[in-house]
Design a protein that fits this description.
Elements: H1 2-22, H2 29-49, H3 55-78, H4 84-103
């Protein structure tokens, strides 16, 4: 159950990162509210996952899902640059997440 909570916490991190970008510095109400709501929910799910997962594992997976997801959303929806170097960087983050999951005690 902790891994499921952690996965959804990571997805919500992507949501709040995208909404924060759309809020234009918290100057637009709806994206600002989505940002705050998704942050609260993401932190809540992260805290549930941390009840049984080690801190380092939970935090790395959470931030990694958010980082990779935000990268993908930026490329797919915001026209951010994609290059071989950026893809390698994302691949290294993904490899780290997989290795962390494979070596996790839970």
């Amino acid at each position: 159950m902790a891994w499921i909570a952690l996965f959804f916490a990571g997805l919500l991190e992507i949501v709040w990162a995208f909404a924060m970008k759309q809020s234009h510095g918290f100057s637009r109400l709806v994206p600002s509210l989505i940002t705050l709501g998704a942050m609260i929910a993401s932190f809540g799910l992260l805290s549930l996952a941390m009840r049984s997962l080690p801190l380092g594992t939970a935090y790395m997976i959470w931030t990694g899902i958010g980082a990779l997801g935000a990268f993908a959303v930026g490329v797919a929806f915001l026209g951010e640059a994609i290059s071989p170097a950026r893809l390698v960087a994302a691949g290294l983050i993904l490899a780290g997440l997989v290795l962390m999951k494979l070596t996790a005690a839970h």
